[in-house]
Write a structure and sequence with these properties.
The chain has about 200 residues and is mainly α. The protein has seven helices and no strands. The longest helix has about 35 residues.
Length: about 200
């Protein structure tokens, strides 16, 4: 549902940012596919591979949702050659260049990617509300919740991944370290919140 405020400058910024989000998701699709290949080198965590592939499907759905909003505004999605904007350029180019060499570096980079998506969708929600586009607002908040859940899951696994990385590199890990990991309380990086309707 659209109840625009007839602010053409705001609309231009808003639609431009939707294109940025589309570019972000499209780039991250490719990056997650690369990470999926790298995960095959780490056999201790089949659950990570499973979650990554499920998250990749979710990211593709996000791309389709954002593409539908561009279609609504009769704007073509950006191509791979012109996805860079003043906002996204430095950050979107960073993640594809990162080639994690350890299990921990892969997990922590994935965590950081989710943080960038969380910030981006919160900004999209704000712009959608300001312009009066409730459909985009709903998509943005749903995507935001899913990315928060994914990041929280990765965060909870990082201590275990850290120790497994040491073992993978043939470093002896004392039993007390494993006991410490088991005693760590799950910490939510971002509290939950209701999705606007």
């Amino acid at each position: 549902m659209i109840t625009p405020n007839n602010n053409e400058q705001l609309k231009e910024k808003f639609v431009s940012y939707i294109r940025d989000i589309y570019a972000m998701e499209d780039r991250f699709n490719n990056t997650l596919e690369q990470y999926g290949e790298q995960l095959k080198n780490f056999k201790d965590f089949p659950e990570f591979r499973s979650r990554l592939y499920k998250h990749l499907e979710m990211t593709r759905e996000h791309t389709a949702h954002i593409g539908s909003r561009l279609q609504f505004y009769k704007v073509q999605p950006p191509t791979i050659e012109n996805t860079f904007t003043p906002y996204t350029s430095p950050l979107l180019s960073y993640f594809p260049m990162v080639k994690p060499t350890t299990w921990f570096s892969l997990a922590s980079t994935w965590f950081t990617m989710e943080q960038f998506k969380i910030a981006s969708y919160r900004c999209l929600s704000t712009l959608a509300q300001a312009y009066g586009d409730n459909d985009t607002l709903r998509f943005a908040e749903e995507h935001l919740r899913e990315d928060i859940d994914m990041q929280n899951w990765i965060f909870g696994k990082l201590p275990e991944v850290c120790l497994y990385t040491l073992q993978f590199e043939n470093v002896s890990v004392p039993p007390s370290a494993w006991e410490f990991v088991k005693q760590l309380e799950p910490v939510s990086t971002i509290p939950s919140f209701p999705i606007p309707r």
